[in-house]
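Problem 12. The chain below contains 208 residues. Write out its predicted structure in token notation.
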Amino acid sequence: MASNDNSENSARSQLVGSDIDSLYGVIDKDKVYGLNLTVPEDAKAVVKPWEEREDTTLFAESNVDDQLILHIPFTQNVRVKSILVKLGRGEVTPRQLRIYANHPTIVDFAEAEVITPQLNLALLEESGVTEYPLRVAAFANVNTLSLFFNESTGGEMTRIYYVGFKGDARTPRKEANSKMVVPAANAADARITDRVLEKAGAQQTTAR
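Solution.
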């Protein structure tokens, strides 16, 4: 049995990889919150650094039934390539996750029934962190994610230990433009353009 466990952990480690493309650093952790949690503040507790992803001392647990929603905003737009989760085991394992992108306020349970999610995932019951690749086209420019976990195995409570994301930050277009320079080979063209603009400005001034 021990050898099987080691084999599973090794495979999972290869799947999860490293923290190079972790989006933890661009999550707006102070603004993370949730719905139907036994302790509301626990929404922030499951957004952990990469090195704490296997920790089970902190978790979020649903309150009156097996449904819970976590709302996770980012400090800048990101491209999300995959989501990583560590779930409770046994009767508290959620079997379904609906992911809603770019809702400025949290998707509540009523909205979740009428809004089409960007993705509906069937979750696996794993002991460690499991990575689920996402359709990059659907999550190419994301500023918030609402995660709706439900349908626990026992049907009464859901528990989440860890939520993380892989991807990359989207550099604002205006920053990219501000760094553009005129190549030396085109410097003469640039001077001609400047003279044309100056002449046009002079004409406008005369017209007034």
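Discussion. Residues 1-16, 173-197, 199-208 have pLDDT under 50 and may be disordered. Students who got a different answer should revisit the alignment rule from Section 12.3.
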